[in-house]
């Protein structure tokens, strides 16, 4: 084994294990993230499950009735382990106030060693391209880094351009594509991978916070500055 330091990677300064999210909800200005329970099922069917178009890139087929969707979510609850937390996304204002309008997934991998987390989203229309939807990523990403994860992953079907654009908008860095990674609904899936690492999160966090400020939106709730622009300006400081 070579002792030449030029051939070795940098020493990891922090080798402590990552921790798991606690049971408490995460609350921001626009949304609250609550651990998924059966109390959320009816809202989620109305706002997610009943929208067949939202299932295009989801690995499972859409479900046509509320009881079928309830069974699906009950199975999902069974898969919740110490390493996987599923949150219902609750709106705090507007016509859907206090309603669950989406799901967010936090998966912790190799907590004791490599400390990798993965983020997944299943948003209803009320969260897509909104401040509330962006706040989900800000709150959950922030929590996972606070819990000592060193890497936050995002992977998606390479043909899902909306998801890929969202990842880049949030500050995830494209790393490559796993060809023939999965078979979903009888079709090939190439998976595109993105990540934010712990050294990048401080600038990403500040960009989220500045973008989410009320002053960044006009009277018609149109953004004044794109989050990508804010993030790039912070890199220059």
Average pLDDT level: 94
Largest sheet: 8 strands, mixed
Secondary structure tally, helices: 6
Query: What percent of residues are in strands?
Result: 25-35%
Distance between the termini: 41 Å
Low-confidence stretches: none
Amount of helix: 25-40%
Structural class: alpha+beta
| H/E element sequence | EEHHEEEHEHEEHH
**Radius of gyration, in angstroms, nearest whole number:** 19 Å
Strand order, sheet with most strands: 1-2-3-4-5-6-8-7
* Backbone shape: globular
How many runs of DSSP E, i.e. beta strands? 8
Topology:
Blueprint: E1 26-27, E2 31-35, H1 41-49, H2 66-79, E3 84-91, E4 100-109, E5 116-123, H3 131-146, E6 151-157, H4 161-170, E7 173-184, E8 187-197, H5 201-212, H6 227-235
Parallel strand pairs: 5-6
Antiparallel strand pairs: 1-2, 2-3, 3-4, 4-5, 6-8, 7-8
Helix pairs in contact: 1-2, 3-5, 5-6
């Amino acid at each position: 084994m070579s002792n030449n330091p030029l051939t070795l990677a940098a020493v990891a300064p922090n080798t402590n294990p990552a921790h798991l999210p606690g049971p408490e909800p995460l609350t921001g200005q626009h949304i609250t993230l609550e651990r998924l329970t059966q109390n959320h099922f009816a809202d989620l069917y109305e706002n997610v499950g009943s929208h067949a178009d939202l299932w295009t890139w989801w690995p499972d087929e859409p479900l046509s009735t509320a009881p079928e969707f309830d069974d699906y979510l009950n199975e999902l609850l069974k898969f919740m382990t110490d390493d996987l937390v599923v949150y219902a996304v609750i709106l705090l204002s507007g016509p859907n106030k206090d309603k669950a309008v989406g799901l967010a997934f936090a998966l912790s991998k190799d907590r004791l060693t490599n400390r990798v987390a993965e983020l997944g989203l299943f948003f209803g229309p009320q969260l897509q391209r909104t401040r509330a939807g962006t706040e989900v990523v800000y709150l959950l990403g922030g929590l996972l880094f606070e819990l000592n994860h060193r890497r936050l992953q995002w992977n998606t079907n390479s043909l899902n351009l909306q998801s890929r654009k969202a990842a880049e908008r949030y500050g995830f860095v494209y790393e490559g594509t796993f060809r023939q990674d999965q078979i979903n609904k009888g079709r090939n899936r190439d998976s595109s991978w993105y990540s934010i690492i712990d050294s990048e999160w401080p600038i990403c966090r500040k960009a989220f916070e500045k973008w989410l400020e009320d002053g960044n939106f006009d009277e018609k709730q149109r953004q004044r500055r794109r989050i990508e622009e804010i993030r790039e300006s912070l890199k220059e400081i």
